[in-house]
Design brief:
This protein has a domain of 51 residues. The chain has 16 helices and eight strands. Strand 3 and strand 4 form a beta hairpin. The longest helix is centred in the C-terminal third of the chain and has 34 residues. It starts with a helix and ends with a helix.
């Protein structure tokens, strides 16, 4: 027997050793695939999110004439302001809501339902509260009252201006952002435990060049924006189509939803209830409101629980329902009290105070307001802009690292090959735990579940191609 055979024969009888550190290698492989394949979606979400963070300032510049009016010591009744808006639009306009000027120097918004507008959209006429001058006429969106430029940026961030189908992109980005961040944190911990110069993982080492310099920036920037990434991922998921629906179902089952006032009135509606007969709301686009009632309803609300200037007054949506007045102040401290008023008796029939919200509802409200950059004003916006810009830079750095590590030479391997497969080296319980976690995450975050299947398909195909190339290479060397 040749000497080489005597050395290789005993080894052939040995069981293959499991490679140490399989879980860290698994995280590295997951981080790699998610970064390469989902990175573009996260990049777009980060860039559009950074743009949205500065949208309020942009809005103030573009629509300064509509949003503001000269300061004055006098103010017209709401009835006169609504009358001016009605005259501007004509008799067929259906009054939906009124938002009195929150501060001296701001305009009042008289909002109308109109055919052809999208969900949560209304047509707003901006009125000078001192003179009744109509200063603008715009389509606005949602509780925030976003003007067209801010709405456009919001839709770009939310669905790439593609409507409901485009929301799949943002759900994919939000769902994977948290997973990539957690995997990156675990890899960072493994690295810093082994590193001699631990400070290089907290701030970039300027002496490094090439791949090491890129890695230093990627690792150090990543650890500083980790909490921001996790927050944006968690709050972004609540807006998503599928995962957001799962969260809403859980909140409803646990009675963690956001309370709202009950507008239903007892007893039949009579002719004396002129407010329910002459108002058009979202569900009644053909009515006309009695402007004088708005002043009376607002006065009652001020005596009850409405104590902020940022208020929305809505007439009854249909016969047999009440007027509603709600605070819409989303900055800190949040003011979201609301009440319902019977238009016949002018009595408060229901009220909800933000202080009585369940804690999960409060956290949801604060999370949304922080994500939108309105909770703490300019400071909130700056933090969001910096975090979003850093996340975009992280994606770019990741691609540069991938390019730098592409194999040199003409061996036929794909550029920037993925880290080695590891599940085949993992213990059975490790494989079972990974499979259970994948199923659980995929159930709650469907966008992650489907892309995990996609990663697996790509991985299998790459493995088959690699083995085929290796087989051809061995065959060629044998024939030569």
């Amino acid at each position: 027997m040749p000497l080489s055979d005597t050395h290789t024969a005993p080894r052939a009888l040995e069981r293959p050793r499991r490679r140490a550190g399989w879980f860290g290698a698994l995280l590295l492989r997951l981080h790699f695939y998610a970064g390469i394949l989902v990175g573009p979606f996260i990049l777009i979400a980060a860039l559009s999110g950074a743009l949205y963070a500065v949208a309020p300032q942009l809005e103030q510049v573009v629509y300064a004439h509509e949003l503001h009016a000269p300061k004055s010591d006098t103010m017209l009744p709401l009835a006169s302001q609504i009358g001016a808006a009605d005259d501007h639009l004509g008799e067929d306009a259906a009054l939906l809501a009124v938002r009195p000027a929150p501060e001296n120097g701001d305009t009042t918004r008289v909002m109308y339902a109109e055919a052809g507008l999208g969900p949560s959209e209304s047509r707003a006429v901006f009125v000078d509260p001192a003179t009744g001058e109509v200063r603008g006429d715009l389509v606005v969106y949602g509780t925030s009252g976003s003007t067209p430029v801010r709405t456009w940026i919001s839709n770009l961030h939310r669905n790439l201006q593609l409507g409901e189908p485009g929301r799949a992109y943002s759900e994919l980005a939000a769902s994977w952002l948290g997973i990539v961040a957690v995997a990156g944190l675990a890899l960072w911990i493994i690295r810093i435990r082994r590193a001699r110069a631990k400070k290089d993982l907290l701030r970039p080492n300027r002496a490094h060049r090439g791949y090491r310099r890129l890695f230093g920036w990627h690792a150090s920037v990543g650890i500083w924006v980790l909490l921001g990434a996790l927050f944006l991922s968690a709050t972004g998921i609540t807006w998503s189509q599928h995962a957001g629906a799962n969260i809403s179902s859980v909140r409803a089952a646990l009675d963690w939803g956001t309370p709202s006032v009950d507008t239903a009135l007892d007893g039949p509606v009579t002719d004396a209830d002129e407010h329910t007969h002459h108002h058009g709301a979202q569900g009644a686009p053909t009515g006309a409101a009695n402007p004088a009632t708005f002043d009376a309803v607002l006065a009652i609300a001020h005596r009850a629980n409405i104590n902020t200037g940022q208020v929305e007054i809505r007439p009854p949506a249909e016969p047999g329902t009440a007027w509603t007045v709600r605070e819409i102040k989303t900055s800190f401290p949040t003011e979201a009290d609301s009440l319902a008023i019977d238009g016949t008796t002018m009595q408060v029939v229901d009220r909800v105070d933000f202080a009585d919200f369940p804690l999960p509802a409060k956290l949801a409200s604060w999370g949304v307001n922080l994500h939108m950059g309105v909770m703490f004003g300019l400071v909130n916006q700056i933090v969001l802009f910096v975090t979003a810009a850093a996340l975009a830079a992280m994606v770019v750095l990741g691609y540069l690292m991938w390019w730098r590590r592409r194999p040199a030479g003409g061996d036929g391997r794909p550029a920037g090959g993925a880290p080695r497969p590891v599940l085949r080296d993992a213990p059975w319980w490790g494989v079972a735990a990974v499979a259970a976690a994948a199923v659980g995450v995929g159930f709650w975050l469907p966008a992650v579940g489907w892309t995990l299947v996609g990663f697996l398909v790509v991985d299998v195909i790459r493995g088959v191609v690699a083995r085929s190339r290796a087989g051809r290479s061995m065959s060629d060397s044998g024939s030569s």
